[in-house]
Amino acid sequence: AQKITQTQPGMFVQEKEAVTLDCTYDTSDPSYGLFWYKQPSSGEMIFLIYQGSYDQQNATEGRYSLNFQKARKSANLVISASQLGDSAMYFCAIAARKLIWGLGTSLAVNP
Amino acid sequence: DAMVIQNPRYQVTQFGKPVTLSCSQTLNHNVMYWYQQKSSQAPKLLFHYYDKDFNNEADTPDNFQSRRPNTSFCFLDIRSPGLGDAAMYLCATSLPGTDNYGYTFGSGTRLTVV
After folding, report:
1. How far is the C-alpha of B50 from the C-alpha of B42, rounded, in Å?
2. pLDDT beneath 50: ranges in chain A
3. Which of A41, A53, A99, A100 to mutate to test the interface with B (most CBs of B within 10 A)?
4. In this structure, are strands A33-39 and A88-95 parallel, antiparallel, or unpaired?
């Protein structure tokens, strides 16, 4: 069975600073994918970044990067140069046959 | 643009009155999912279709049903909504075998039960 753990219920960051959101996972599948989603208060689930278990390099998408440490089973999201619009709920998820979600981290960006 | 569309965006229904939420996709993905998400919680998978094969999660209440008449459309029927069914309902699609599974979410339908 797969499991995602997000240990930070809430985080604060100053505008323009970088922030790291933690995610650890557990799976017995040799092949899996790791996702980060952003969910603003409007409710839509916005895809941010994906890391495949066999990918050699850490994924990057603009200001988002995924710090993937396979041996430690961690997949932390790094947001560089935070913006006010980054304030939202952030979910980490693992996919094999279906998505398994963490409980999420609420990020607040302060001006 | 290929996408997943959910209608309506907001739905208000009366306690006990059947309600149907709809989801359509132009991606031609063979898997479609329905999630329920309550306030400050993670999405909870209700069921999914792999092509025409229906897969119900073990803890999905019998009050929730789904139909997938064709590849493009999927419906969520709540037969007798209770106050506890008020939530955001998210539809998603995926294409297994693609590089990142192709997960795509609709904008969601926020259901209020009065």
Report:
1. 23
2. none
3. A99
4. antiparallel
